[in-house]
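User: Is it possible to get a 3D structure for a protein together with its bound compound? The compound here is pyridoxal-5'-phosphate. I've pasted both below.
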Amino acid sequence: MLDVKKIKADFPILNQNVNGKRLVYLDNAATTQKPNCVIEAISDYYKIYNANIHRGIHTLSQKATQAYEDTRVATQNFIGAKASQEIIFTRNTTESINLIAYSYARFNLKPGDEILLTHMEHHANLVPWLELSKELGVKIKYIPLTADFRLDLSNLNQLITDKTKIVSVTLMSNVLGVINDLTAITELAHKFKAIVHVDAAQAVAHMPIDVKKLNCDFLSFSFHKILGPTGVGILWGREALLDSMPPFLTGGNMIASVYFDKVTFNELPYKFEAGTPDIANVIAAKTAIEYINNIGYKDIAKHESKLTAYALEKLSGQENIIFYGPVNTINRGSVISFNLKGLHPHDLGQVINEEGVAIRAGHHCCQPLMRLLDISGTIRASLYIYNDEDDIDILVKTLKNAYKVMGHVASR
Ligand SMILES: Cc1ncc(COP(=O)(O)O)c(C=O)c1O
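Assistant: Yes, that's possible. Here is the predicted structure of the complex:
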């Protein structure tokens, strides 16, 4: 089991009061906090070996280049990729998905082709495809949801056909908390020679990622969701696929030779990494991987499952609560969305914030899903390795007090 007290001590930000109360951080689906070792990895780079990478022969540049490339190898091992050149550093999941849309889809899809998404996608996995569909005249289809907030795969045979060229799905919903079994989707998609992208932005915090087992063609995530710095994400892709794609951004670093009238491109992965990257944060991302690996996903999952069950049980006692997501811990992560009947989530969120509890209120970048659920937004509590039952108790107590005050106002 996790030693939460010991883990908490690694996160300096958690040791503070907010609005006069102990900070209870329950907004981990938006971004996680950073342990001392990650913060130190960033400052060590700037203090000791700040230099640009790949093009310097001096010692600092070599050291920085080595550390930057070490993160690539660590990421390769972290997700079970075949080769380190299959790991492309981007700014975040959003940029990774845009890279697929611009450098793969734009050159491989034609009018009449179809892209398959789901009703639970984050805007990051919707908007790039919506924009592309206008430009290319391709159609977007969606896998709907069941009444218990899971993917409804009963009509998959109609949704995936020889017109389907790209399937892009989330492995875990940032609103509903569900973890999707993608086996049937990837099998059928590949039968029709469609490529599959997995959005692992949420899932990577909660479960080990193995691109071989997932049987996908592209996968993306952001390091800020796994205790790492902001500004660094990855796109993983099968080498042959990445090799066949033109670059997304062009300029320095991604070239082999430049003439006044022509250019040839660098090999993978540099072809997709134009300009000076976020060197310090890429280097520190390796420290985040090491921190997660030292704890181990087995213990992370056990802790989260126990805490999620506790939170669901305690929250169920709240008058007029409506959950948006499964109320058990089967195939779900520690993201819990809910509303209190009659209260606007933003108003409720503000009262909760006054008590030092950081939760999120709103549409969580899933406006179409909110429309489907016929709500303007939800309260979302998302738990991670430094949360404990005490944090849940404070949330529940705060919620009860808020409801006592605001519930009266709402029912008047
Ligand atoms: C499921 C999912 N996909 C994509 C994203 C986008 O991640 P980023 O903002 O790091 O690009 C998020 C962020 O919350 C997410 O939860």
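Residues 92-94, 122, 124-125, 170, 174, 199, 201-202, 222 surround pyridoxal-5'-phosphate (CB under 6 Å). The mean pLDDT is 97.
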